[in-house]
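Cont'd.
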Amino acid sequence: DAGVTQSPTHLIKTRGQQVTLRCSPKSGHDTVSWYQQALGQGPQFIFQYYEEEERQRGNFPDRFSGHQFPNYSSELNVNALLLGDSALYLCASSLDFQRGYNEQFFGPGTRLTVL
Amino acid sequence: SQQGEEDPQALSIQEGENATMNCSYKTSINNLQWYRQNSGRGLVHLILIRSNEREKHSGRLRVTLDTSKKSSSLLITASRAADTASYFCATDSWGKFQFGAGTQVVVTP
């Protein structure tokens, strides 16, 4: 059983560009959350998707948007990139928390560098 | 903003010693989880404690939760060099997770 997978592993972009990151959840999981982790910091919650809808959102601007597909995979899009968007982007999957399952399984992350 | 605050920020111990780290948070939660991260890679779930639980054990890990003080502690007993990593607490408020800044633990042989 493949765990959570993310692509690409590394990405280099320039300011003002747009980027799309991809995540495939662990088999059987229906909920995907995205996090941004700056160097030396803890992960910051961006948003969570369940049943193709954004269910929860952290304190991130509208430049950060996402999508969840019927197969539960997800994309994170960031527009008008800023230098401060350079970070490790982590995807986590879980079962719907309303069913009482709360453990999140994390992917290896995508390292985004904005020049 | 980060909900959890871990203390200490860094911890250096020798193999065989115990490592204790603490986490404080601000809002109501339905559970609190601890994760480990090695060298900027993905996080690994260690243990979950629900808001109605006070203590939980898993192998060499012991977690406590005091909801009145909004704090939790993680104890790793008989530490090993392989325990070297960053440890994060994460609060779960009905599906919304918030992580602390982490405790960096170094275990020397």
